[in-house]
């Protein structure tokens, strides 16, 4: 399908939500349907050390993760068709995972301040179009167990309820939504239905800032 490089169409559309909400599946399907590119972020070297010892490698993992995400986005913008459909974001790294590490006491105030500054800089260059895939806790747990990814399943199962609540708080925060265009949709719908809804939203001629569509 024709590449959607046209005036007013976003360079980056970011999929938000908990683990197993359908971000990766949706990003790949959107790329196939619209002729864009699903943004893939390679695993950073610190990740395995972090999973084995979150307290010891929290800061190093988070700052490296943010750096890898930004580099992957820049590389994709230079070499891939647009738009980019991203299944991760600075918000996911910092507002959810760094936040949880801080809540657990794994980040000092100084480390949090540095990560917060890194996040602010990253957000400025990221994009303004966001799709939040809302999934209930029973579905998250069921999907995590079915996915069975050995490297992080225990970590994700232990944090599923906290992460879900955190995402809901972020999406409801008017300060976070300021300057963004946000679509909220059930991640429990059929993937094709999800994509059709997103395509309709992106194709709207009159895009109002801070769109609060809820399906």
Report on this structure:
- By secondary structure, the chain is of the alpha/beta class.
- Helices cover 57% and strands 12% of the residues.
- A six-stranded parallel β-sheet has the order 2-3-1-4-5-6, with helices on both faces.
- Helix 9 (191-202) links the parallel strand 5 (181-186) and strand 6.
- The protein is globular, with a radius of gyration of 17 Å.
- Mean pLDDT is 89; it is low at 204-215.
Show the helix and strand layout.
Layout: E1 12-16, H1 23-34, E2 37-39, H2 46-52, H3 54-79, E3 84-86, H4 90-103, H5 109-124, E4 129-134, H6 137-147, H7 153-172, H8 174-177, E5 181-186, H9 191-202, E6 212-214
Parallel strand pairs: 1-3, 1-4, 2-3, 4-5, 5-6
Question: What's the short story on this structure?
Answer:
By secondary structure, the chain is an alpha/beta fold. Helices cover 57% and strands 12% of the residues.
